[in-house]
């Protein structure tokens, strides 16, 4: 077994490229936060309502016993929100605390995320402020939480492939996933889970490729704990983290002494103990009370099938394919406005074809692909099982769980990067593919923003009318001036970043890597 993988330190050009991609990503999300009408993000009204319950001093209820505030539902108009002049304060929409019969499903999660957002609102003295202003601040808090995502993707891919340019290109791919931009710019419990999943990916890749520091193991366990403190979806990272530790490279002394198995098991226990001690009590209590670590907030519904009819596997497979790909890449609004099938299907087929092709190639690091790929595969298996059970019991098929893959997005990009690096060996072709990302990503981002505008303000007519512009102006919580500043900054940062990356990708001065078979270095900060 070889020693730890070592990569040359990042150059100034590489760090500037990463900074440009990260800044563009943050500004894109901030633009989404400004343009998307308040409460119109995926499950955003439910998330905001949960925050308002804690802000109002209500205790966190048992699963299934959280109900929407009536005043919030009155503002949450699906067709078009009231103009800014008719939006009252937070205190006004809470009112006397009257609740609707409609259940809020957020009670199935721990209150951690909602408590943090409630603390932010409390610091702003939110009661006297207009409710859409408070929602905008909550959105911007989520944007700040999402800010490290490009750097985490870059660090993960760079560690796994030892290719600085490929790592920056992988980070730029995030700009071409509109659904992530919408979720990351909304008030959503998924935001910290996404970042925690990316952090877990980077740390697990470090451990797998030879980082033997116990601090890295503790940090890996801590990143999993951050995810589980917010949602049970954080547990999806556990199988991948454990396999990465079990299959990771150890110190030569441990391997020679015969303590290999004991050391690996001990390191796995460290990773498990951190989330078990810090957040496991919540899910244990839920299991004792309800028989499930994450009970369903809605009462069970089961419709018997007509005699002689059973589930249609082909129909389910088609619905699952379309639903997962749409809701991962771009099913905007409240999972109601899909991107063009040309974009979605092309991206999905190309990505899967590369993985299948790489799996049959000996030039590809298939061991790393298998270990890191366990994260998204775990997600797909869980979602497939859940949706199949729902289909069998409810007759209908509704698949909108593409967001479940977002915590594993860094792992997905690592696997794709390894596949493309092994399949494409000519430097000129690699440069063209990296530059293609710079062309495709802004086109997809602009198309998605155009779809959001046309669906929200033009009745799904692809035009820019006077009535649509007026509807947009009267919807913006911070006004048209703030949107103009954001759009200007996005252009000022994004365009020079794209030009600089175009030139950098083509330069023949790749970072020289240190041979992998050098004597193992105890330091892990490389």
TrEMBL record:
Keywords: Cell membrane, Glycosyltransferase, Membrane, Transferase, Transmembrane, Transmembrane helix
Localization per record: Cell membrane
Mode of membrane association: Multi-pass membrane protein
Transmembrane segments: 15-35, 136-157, 187-205, 261-284, 337-358, 370-389, 404-424, 436-455, 482-502
Domain of life: Bacteria
InterPro entries: LipidA_mod_glycosyltrf_83
Protein name: Glycosyltransferase RgtA/B/C/D-like domain-containing protein
Species this chain originates from: Curtobacterium subtropicum
């Amino acid at each position: 077994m070889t020693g730890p993988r070592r990569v040359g330190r990042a150059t100034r050009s590489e760090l500037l490229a990463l900074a440009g991609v990260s800044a563009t990503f943050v500004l894109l999300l901030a633009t989404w936060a400004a343009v998307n009408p308040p409460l119109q993000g995926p499950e955003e009204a439910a998330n905001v309502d949960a925050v308002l319950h804690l802000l109002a001093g209500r205790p966190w209820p048992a699963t299934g016993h959280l109900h929407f505030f009536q005043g919030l539902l009155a503002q949450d108009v699906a067709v078009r929100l009231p103009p800014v002049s008719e939006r009252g304060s937070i205190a006004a929409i809470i009112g006397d605390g009257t609740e609707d019969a409609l259940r809020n499903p957020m009670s199935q999660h721990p209150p951690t995320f909602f408590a943090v957002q409630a603390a932010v609102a409390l610091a702003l003295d939110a009661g006297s402020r207009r409710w859409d202003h408070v929602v905008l601040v909550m959105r911007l808090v989520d944007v700040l939480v999402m800010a490290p995502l490009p750097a985490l993707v870059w660090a993960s891919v760079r560690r796994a492939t030892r290719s600085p340019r490929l790592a920056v290109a992988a980070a730029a791919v995030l700009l071409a996933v509109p659904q992530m931009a919408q979720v990351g710019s909304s008030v959503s419990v998924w935001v910290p889970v996404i970042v925690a999943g990316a952090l877990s990916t980077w740390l697990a890749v470090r451990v797998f490729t030879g980082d033997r520091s116990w601090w890295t193991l503790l940090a890996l366990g801590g990143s999993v704990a951050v995810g589980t403190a917010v949602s049970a979806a954080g547990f999806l990272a556990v199988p991948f983290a454990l396999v990465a530790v079990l299959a990771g490279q150890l110190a030569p002394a441990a391997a020679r002494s015969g303590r290999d198995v004991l050391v690996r098991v001990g390191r796995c226990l460290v990773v498990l103990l951190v989330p078990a001690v810090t957040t496991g009590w919540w899910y244990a209590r839920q299991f004792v009370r309800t028989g499930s670590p994450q009970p369903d907030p809605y009462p069970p519904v089961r419709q018997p099938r007509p005699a002689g009819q059973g589930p249609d596997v082909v129909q389910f497979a088609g619905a699952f394919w379309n639903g997962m790909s749409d809701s991962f890449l771009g099913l905007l609004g409240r999972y109601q406005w899909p991107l063009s099938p040309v974009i979605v299907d092309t991206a999905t087929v190309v990505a899967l074809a590369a993985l299948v092709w790489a799996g049959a190639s000996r030039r590809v690091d298939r061991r790393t692909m298998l270990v890191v790929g366990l994260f998204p595969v775990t997600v797909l298996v869980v979602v497939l099982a859940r949706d199949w059970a729902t289909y069998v019991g409810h007759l209908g098929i509704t698949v909108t769980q593409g967001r479940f893959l977002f915590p594993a997005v860094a792992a997905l990009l690592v696997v794709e990067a390894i596949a493309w690096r092994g399949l494409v060996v000519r430097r000129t072709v690699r440069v063209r593919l990296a530059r293609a990302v710079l062309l495709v990503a802004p086109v997809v981002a602009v198309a998605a923003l155009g779809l959001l505008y046309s669906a929200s303000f033009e009745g799904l007519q692809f035009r820019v009318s006077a009535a649509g512009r007026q509807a947009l102006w009267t919807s913006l919580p911070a006004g048209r001036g703030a949107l103009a500043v954001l759009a200007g900054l996005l252009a000022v940062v994004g365009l020079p970043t794209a030009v600089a990356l175009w030139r950098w990708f083509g330069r023949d001065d790749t970072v020289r890597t240190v041979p992998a078979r050098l004597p193992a270095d105890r330091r892990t900060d490389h």
